[in-house]
Write a structure and sequence with these properties.
- The protein is mainly beta.
- The protein has one domain: Anthranilate synthase (4-Layer Sandwich), CATH 3.60.120.
- The radius of gyration is 20 Å and the shape is globular.
- 19% of the residues are buried.
């Protein structure tokens, strides 16, 4: 069976309409959103960064911390949520919801997320083993979503060399220290006053 690309669940207003002063998109249309990207060219302790992001209000809702082999990802403030249960795939975005019957989640999900009016999004979350029921003879079902992803408004990738921040909302400054503020030599200056990094 060949799946056809779906009609966009969230119609996107054109640039002329969304950029006109005092003009709101027509009912049913949503402006496309872009991520602002910033780079801090030095390492920051991930837990210190997370604590400061929470204290500063850059992350105010659900968040995820993922430690990979060469970097740590911190993502939070869901802008969109996608869940799969035994019957349907549900996409929520800015108060709107769309449900579609679940038949081949791994085939459907990329197409559904591609309809979001966002550029260069990333989705984070979990996939449970029980989602195999769509592909094999497997009847056990957990009492929570079989799959749950969210697209964040704020995310950061921390490596041993730098921090890359992507945010829907522009950021002027971010607190990068105090306890855990890193000097150029990589050692924490635990007695320092809070350090602020001005972002371009």
């Amino acid at each position: 069976m060949t799946l056809q690309p779906p009609t966009s669940f969230f119609a996107v207003a054109d640039d002329e309409a969304t950029n006109s002063p005092g003009h709101l998109p027509a009912d049913g249309f949503m402006p496309r959103q872009d991520y602002h990207e910033y780079v801090i060219p030095r390492p920051i302790d991930p837990l210190s960064f997370l604590r400061n992001a929470l204290n500063q209000g850059l992350i105010a809702e659900d968040y995820l911390l993922y430690r990979g082999q060469n970097s740590v990802i911190i993502a939070g403030n869901p802008l969109a949520r996608l869940t799969v249960d035994v019957d349907a795939i549900t996409l929520e975005y800015q108060g709107r919801q769309h449900r579609t019957p679940a038949t081949d989640p791994f085939g459907q999900i990329p197409q559904i997320l591609a309809t979001l009016p966002l550029t260069q999004w990333r989705a984070y979350g979990y996939i449970s083993f029980d989602i195999s029921r769509f592909y094999y003879a497997y009847n056990h079902v957990m009492n929570c979503p079989l799959l749950s992803f969210f697209v964040p408004t704020f995310e950061a990738q921390l490596t041993e060399h730098s921090v890359t921040i992507r945010s829907i909302q522009p950021i002027n400054q971010i607190e990068t220290g105090g306890h855990g503020c890193l000097r150029q030599n990589g050692y924490a200056d635990h007695g320092a006053a809070p350090c602020w990094c001005t972002l371009p």
